[in-house]
Queue: 2 jobs
Job 1
Amino acid sequence: MWIFKNKSSLNIRSVPLVLASSFLLTVFAFLPNRGLSVILGLYSVQEVKPKVFVWIPDDVIDQECDPNFTRAATAGFTLTAHGVAVIDTSNSPMHARDLLFEIRRRTDLPIQYVINTSAAADHMLGNEVFTDEQATLISTKAAQAEMFEYRQELFDREHSEQGFRLQARMRGFHVTPSTKTFDEKMMLNMGDQEIRITSLIRSGTSPDEAVVYLPSAKTLFLGELYDNKYFPRVGSRDVHRWIEVLRQVEGWDVDTYVPGHGAPGNKKDLVDFRKFLEWLVAQVDMRLKQGQTPEQVQRSLWLPKTYNWHAADLAPETVADVCRQLAPPAPAPVPASNQPEGR
Ligand SMILES: [Zn+2]
């Protein structure tokens, strides 16, 4: 497995900067790895299988993006006889340009397809960069509808009272929904690489999320359905159905699982993530059954105490979302006409 780090060009005027950077490198070499990454804002690219690459951003809170999606998502690409297919485009056109830069270091072939695993903005806000490359943007029909909704919702936020801040943060962003859709499955035959896209999670109010399977490479891109050592966003995703889906893909002929956040994992890493979800559900369920309110559960269950993972800032929301799903519905208010009359 090869790991590439991005490099920038150097000229004579950069020398003082390079010396300062060398000093910082020396200083930060003695700090934990994450400290170094945050300072330099690096990403890495792993060739997980021949001609299958994963672009992995460091855990950095981006300032120039939607404040609801400040953490760049992992993305990928595969080079085939018929051109390039890209899987997800991260949370900004700037990161998508990093991704394009890494593709162009390796090939001049046309970028045929961009596949969005879901409508999550941190996985599709880079789409516009690949429209410039004449790529066809693919997602499920439901995810496309969610992308259009997001674009409208973002417009509304930008034109609200404090919207000028958001406009400044997202200057130059053009939300670009998918251009080609499918319902449940789609197959792309790209010569030496077959790509199978399948919608797996849809149920009730869950967002529509697809996985991208490269059978000959035994590699599966799971988007938001799998985070590797990052606390996940649960949102309205049905957590029981989610666990079922993870069990299902654990049985597939796959040895490399690419997450929506974090580095590629093996089967054991995926199982660990599924076990985390099962543990979380059991913990929340137990506390609710003991009579704790959802607010008390959120206060008593501090996930980073048990799991030393990235995105600790998301941990309270992760618990809150599971509480919302598992808490018994509040009793309906008694209509005024049925209430005993006071004196
Ligand atoms: Zn994400």
Job 2
Amino acid sequence: MLLDLVKKARSYRRYDPTKPISPETLAELTEAARLTPSAGNLQRLRYLAVTDKSEVLALTEGVKWAGYLTDWDGPGESEAPTAYLILLSPESTGVSQIDVGIAAETILLAAAEKGVGGCMILNFPREELTERYKLTGKYKIELVISLGVPAEKVELEEMKDGNVRYYRDEKDVHHVPKRPLAEVFFTPNRL
Ligand SMILES: Cc1cc2nc3c(=O)[nH]c(=O)nc-3n(C[C@H](O)[C@H](O)[C@H](O)COP(=O)(O)O)c2cc1C
């Protein structure tokens, strides 16, 4: 069921580095993104696959992971992602960012179906990546998505007292509070 897949497609930030994601799998995730809607059907997004271990580890170090987990610096080599997809567009606009959101969630859903997990990342080292992949004058980086086989448990829970902060419990399970349906779903006579 779609809702099961949506629930499974969480943000995973700790992975099993012994289980690589192949370029073929990354191409399959991109195939799903390729078919999503885009404004004016312009299809301006491009998808740069990164699987080289040293490049993956360098990017992993440059990302700012999980801002609310103040006592965790992000995955080290033993729990690092094994691949990244970098979403590019010739020019970043409000409209291109809507396209990016649609594509990115589609990638995470397609990944979840294959037992792969990921995390959308806006807090990435833009200059470093732009230089490394010689993107200047060609593409802007819209979003980075880390990918790998998850090595952490993530659970959704109903939000209490408006507290949006995700946290890890004593068993190292990552909990993500979500606002109750009644808080986000309106009808015209109940706004
Ligand atoms: C546009 C966007 C940017 C994000 N950037 C980061 C980021 O830089 N670092 C990070 O660790 N998580 C990032 N996240 C993941 C969010 O923290 C995550 O979606 C949120 O905590 C809810 O968890 P969930 O995805 O499991 O529902 C980002 C998510 C989105 C949608």
